[in-house]
Every structure is written in C-alpha cells, then in structure tokens.
Design the sequence.
C-alpha cells in the first residue's frame, strides 16, 4: 500500500468515536468474533498496561488479565472495526506510562490504589467516553443546583439588608 492509501484508511477510521484510555484503567473490551456465518461479542476484561505507539487509526493498547494463575495479554487496535466498544470500569492512580512490572508481581502485590477523579479530569480537558459523558452531565447538574442555591441565598441576604421604609 502506498502512503496515501494508508492515510485514506486512517481518515475513514478516525470518524469512529474512540475511547479515552490510559494505563491503569480497568476495562471491558467488547470484541466481535466471527465463527462461520455467525458473529458474536466476546468480552475481555482486564487492566490497560500500555498504550502502544501509533497515531490515529494505528494506535493500539495492551490489556492484561490473569486466568487461573496464568497471565493473558491481548493487544487491540484502538480503531478496529472488530472492537465493538471499550468500557472503563475503574481507574487507578499510576505514575508510569507502561505497567509491565505487573507481569512479575503475584497475588496482592498486583493491586493498585483506586484513584477517583481521573474520568472527571479527562472530561474537563475535552476527552470523552461513555462514563465520562455521564460524569460531565452529573457535574453540570450539580453546578446548576449550586448556582440556584447561591442565588437564593443572595436574594435572602438582600431582602434582610433592605431597611423597611414606611
């Protein structure tokens, strides 16, 4: 393929809404599996341990889970038509771009500390995915209710400060 053909394919897949992922996210990847003429969805749940190189449609991410004591890793293309959707279940606070050290850990030492607010921060900076949009809507509703409460307080204070003129 020529360079122009690759760019055309990337533009085609760039129109697809891509999930916002970071290392340390626990995700469910809904993957389309074709068996003969039938097609089904298979869910692979695990931890995102790396966002691999690539730009746009060629970007990939690695998801790891442990099945019966054996570590299983899958590499998914982010813009693949075979990836139906990616759900972010939980976010963990990590300070590395690649979490390959989790391969060597066993048992309780693989646990990461839960980090609240990562999804909200992503939404604030313009990144969106399914849960992020829900959080953004809830935050907007909370801001609106806070503004109404503040307006009601200012009206009460203004009414108390006005002297009765008769």
Sequence:
């Amino acid at each position: 393929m020529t360079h122009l053909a690759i760019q055309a394919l990337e533009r085609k897949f760039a129109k697809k809404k891509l999930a916002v992922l970071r290392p340390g996210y626990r995700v469910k990847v809904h993957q389309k599996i074709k068996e003969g003429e039938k097609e089904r969805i298979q869910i692979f749940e695990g931890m995102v341990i790396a966002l691999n190189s690539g730009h746009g449609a060629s970007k990939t991410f690695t998801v790891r889970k442990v099945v019966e004591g054996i570590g299983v890793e899958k590499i998914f293309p982010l813009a693949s038509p075979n990836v139906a959707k990616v759900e972010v279940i939980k976010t963990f606070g990590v300070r590395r771009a690649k979490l390959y050290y989790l391969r060597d850990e066993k048992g309780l030492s693989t646990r990461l500390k839960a980090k609240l607010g990562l999804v909200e921060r992503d939404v604030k900076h313009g990144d969106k995915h399914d849960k992020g949009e829900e959080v953004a809507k809830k935050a907007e509703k909370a801001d609106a209710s806070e503004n109404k409460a503040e307006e009601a307080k200012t009206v009460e204070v203004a009414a108390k400060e006005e002297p009765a003129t008769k």
